[in-house]
Amino acid sequence: xxxxxxxxxxxxxxxxxxxxxxxxxxxxxxxxxxxxxxxxxxxxxxxxxxxxxxxxxxxxxxxxxxxxxxxxxxxxxxxxxxxxxxxxxxxxxxxxxxxxxxxxxxxxxxxxxxxxxxxxxxxxxxxxxxxxxxxxxxxxxxxxxxxxxxxxxxxxxxxxxxxxxxxxxxxxxxxxxxxxxxxxxxxxxxxxxxxxxxxxxxxxxxxxxxxxxxxxxxxxxxxxxxxxxxxxxxxxxxxxxxxxxxxxxxxxxxxxxxxxxxxxxxxxxxxxxxxxxxxxxxxxxxxxxxxxxxxxxxxxxxxxxxxxxxxxxxxxxxxxxxxxxxxxxxxxxxxxxxxxxxxxxxxxxxxxxxxxxxxxxxxxxxxxxxxxxxxxxxxxxxxxxxxxxxxxxxxxxxxxxxxxxxxxxxxxxxxxxxxxxxxxxxxxxxxxxxxxxxxxxxxxxxxxxxxxxxxxxxxxxxxxxxxxxxxxxxxxxxxxxxxxxxxxxxxxxxxxx
Amino acid sequence: xxxxxxxxxxxxxxxxxxxxxxxxxxxxxxxxxxxxxxxxxxxxxxxxxxxxxxxxxxxxxxxxxxxxxxxxxxxxxxxxxxxxxxxxxxxxxxxxxxxxxxxxxxxxxxxxxxxxxxxxxxxxxxxxxxxxxxxxxxxxxxxxxxx
Lengths: 497, 147
Description:
The complex is a heterodimer. By secondary structure, chain A is mainly alpha-helical. In chain A, 73% of the residues lie in helices and 1% in strands. Chain A has 18 helices and 2 strands. In chain A, α5 (88-99) runs antiparallel to α12 (295-319) and α15 crosses α16. Chain A is globular and about 70 Å long. Chain A starts with a helix and ends with a helix. Helix content of chain B is 78%, strand content 0%. By secondary structure, chain B is mainly α. In chain B, α1 (4-23) packs antiparallel against α2 (28-59) and α3 runs antiparallel to α4 (95-109). The interface between A and B is large, with 52 and 62 residues.
């Protein structure tokens, strides 16, 4: 309780409030630009958080994450083009409302539902995260090995199109993570006589390359088309009491859906928004309005995708296992600050930082509501920004961001190589997120395995010696087969929508 | 089966062979972990190849070039070429000069109106200067010519 209170006091410091305001605004801009994703935005702005205190840096990244997920709904509603895949279901009802001259209403409901979904997701963040962290404190080297394997099986979940290609991407990422000095023997591994690779591949450069630079190349390969003009609207944005009463049960259901989906590794906001929308339709008293502009449809989708945000942070913060691409990038932000994601974040001085971030995450939702309602008209115009302008601007930010990490030109070249790799990975159906997860989890798994074997004089039985190891092995099996289940759910939800 | 997947399989085998060759040059205790990963990667790749052959036998094959359907080669290679030139030029002429030239070249190639070209360059230069130069105190490359 004391930590929670301290967290709020720290989060309310002016620097953190400015960080929230700026982060949410940048996030909404990134989100409302079709073609730019939340992961890309967080990766691109990661270097800006280096010099900030850890809690402030994390608050900025969290604010960008939340802002981007909401921002996607603006272009979905106004120009029928979801800014991020997480708003795909919002476009169905939102654009119908726009055609009826109720764009303001649709945006207001989207904003209010996003706020509620995000705020309610903080509850599970506060209550489940410390519990899971307590469990993780009992982990030794063998458990950490299995934990990283569990994380790697999530790769199969992240790549629902082809499990095999997802696993190949993960193994490729693991191989890349071995570049640098051997952590036990102290000999150079695959460094190709490049002293800059002594500490291995810089994860942030890899992130910027794989998510941001590759996106630039994806945008550059297609002829630039002018975007549809965003509809100007003058109707009232703030939902009335009756409307709030109407959408309240939908928000409640979507919150539960989004939270569970968020905690489950491998699933994400895109699945949540379709499930939220679908459930809203099933339980609605006005089913006939669906497909013709229903505010319940908008609320169901938006509350669910924002409820994912808090939930998805739980496995990343407590176990050091990012379940999807945005949390993988956020984990990169933690590592840059010299913090080790996992139970250590809930001990001593670090716990203060963690609870400041939690409190910041609560306040971010209020900023999102205020900025969303006040700035929607302005953001709507930004959503028309041409890819022609975005391509060179994002390229420059990729270059300067990767250079700023160590003020090294080699990092820029590494970013560029990963950008090209990321482009081909996407074109050939492999998976960028899987490579990133493996890059992050590879060293954890290697340390766990080699320490365990050193402790047991090379006897692999140590890896099966505790009940916790077996629990994690079962989770690994679940991780491998979960994509089959997630794929079915996603298909069913999309078909119904 | 997509024929382009054959390129993926071939690439992975080449990576395995290259890293495998380097692995054997490492001291024995340091070989184990990379070789373990390489074996897993090669095994998965073989599964993918087997799956592709099975699918080709059952359902036939497609070129797999659908993902390159709207590919605009001039634009793509233009941007990629400018990006590489940008890094080379930055090494010699520094960040600001190379950024202005890179942005101008890209925006011109992408047929952006001159007014927007100028505005974009000013905004990005100001943003980078304020965020990285002023706020983070990052000394951006000045280049061999001016350094």
